[in-house]
Design a protein that fits this description.
With 180 residues, the protein is mainly alpha-helical. It contains six helices and three strands. It has one domain (4-35, 46-177). It has helices at 7-34, 53-64, 71-82, 91-101, 106-125, 142-145, and strands at residues 134-139, 148-153, 171-173. Helix 1 crosses helix 3 (71-82).
């Protein structure tokens, strides 16, 4: 039996990634609840009830503050929110990036966030109804001048790649000109 385009293998990988990330979500929530009060991250909503843009933007704002606090819980929320639309273009990259954004160092978290961002841009370009109040920004200096895009709330630029050092560095990009 042939598998044109490797669809079976791709679906198995996506299923496996989903199962692993679901385990991460459960583990993260258990650890987070065991840590007691003082967590600034809002509790995780019921699966499928939160758009993946909400925790994504919280991750973007956290990185812009040069922090990694709460990224484990936020990335778990992205995965849970992405589950209902995981077959849509770009969502696989969002989930993969979310699985790595909860890193122990901010450079790794920022690199994973760039992967999430590219996937989210692809997804949102096809779902205009979900991008209200959001815009795409590009920082040409990110990652040693290779540049990187992200999605943020409309308004003042808040750069997740350079944080407080260059908080407002970047150029807004119209959705129709965004990559993906």
């Amino acid at each position: 039996m042939s598998d044109p385009g490797g669809l079976y293998l791709r679906s198995v990988r996506l299923w496996y990634a989903g199962e692993m990330l679901r385990g991460l979500v459960v583990f993260s929530l258990l650890i987070g609840s065991a840590c007691g009060p003082g967590n600034e991250v809002a509790p995780a909503p019921i699966a499928g009830k939160e758009p993946m843009t909400a925790p994504y933007v919280a991750i973007q704002e956290t990185l812009a503050r040069d922090s990694i606090d709460g990224l484990t819980q936020l990335s778990a929320r992205v995965v849970v929110a992405a589950e209902p639309v995981q077959s849509q273009p770009g969502v696989e990259e969002v989930i993969a990036g979310a699985g790595r954004v909860a890193a122990q160092d901010i450079d790794t978290a920022r690199l994973a966030f760039s992967k999430m961002s590219m996937g989210l841009i692809v997804y949102l370009k096809q779902h205009a109804d979900e991008r209200a109040g959001l815009e795409v920004v590009f920082c040409p200096m990110a990652f040693n001048n290779k540049g990187a895009h992200w999605v943020q709330k409309s308004g003042e630029i808040v750069n997740p790649y350079h944080g407080m050092m260059m908080l407002h560095c970047g150029d807004k990009v119209p959705w129709d000109k965004a990559p993906g």
